[in-house]
Design brief:
CATH topology of the largest domain: N-terminal domain of TfIIb
Radius of gyration: 15 Å
Order of helices and strands: EEEEEEEEEHEEEE
Helix content: under 10%
Number of strands: 13
Number of domains: 2
Largest sheet: 6 strands, antiparallel
Strand content: over 45%
Shape: globular
Structural class: mainly beta
Length: about 130
């Protein structure tokens, strides 16, 4: 079990987080939710990619985030949506200090995800 600073408990199994819920579940566009004996399962496909410029981005469900330097937040580091300036998107993620666990996903994106493709040198570029 993982305890967030807010006091909420999460269960992590094979890199996926679950939280106990007693509320009615609504499926939101772009989200996969499954009810498992009182736990809600949030599937997040997360990975790190390196752009041809050398910048490392976090991809969660095809949306890209970049790390805010030394911006500690809720026991981890804040990664904000890469489209914050272009689309004024307020979505952000909080990863653990060692970048192995998503502690929090906040906000909905107000834009479509940016597509990236892998080039022959092993770096990603915008498609």
């Amino acid at each position: 079990m993982i305890r967030l600073l807010s006091g909420k408990q999460l269960m992590m199994i094979q890199g996926f987080t679950f939280h106990r819920t007693v509320k009615m579940i609504r499926l939101l566009s772009g989200k996969q939710l499954v009810m498992i004996q009182g736990f809600t399962f949030h599937r997040t496909g997360a990975e790190f990619i390196t752009l041809n410029t050398g910048v490392t981005l976090l991809l969660i469900n095809k949306y890209s985030f970049h790390k805010l330097g030394a911006s500690k937040y809720c026991g981890g580091y804040r990664w904000r949506c890469s489209s914050k300036k272009r689309h004024k998107c307020k979505a952000f993620a909080v990863l653990s200090v060692d970048d192995t666990t998503i502690l929090r996903l906040v906000g909905m994106h107000n834009h479509d995800p940016t597509a990236y493709k892998l080039n022959q040198k092993g770096f990603y570029v915008k498609a």
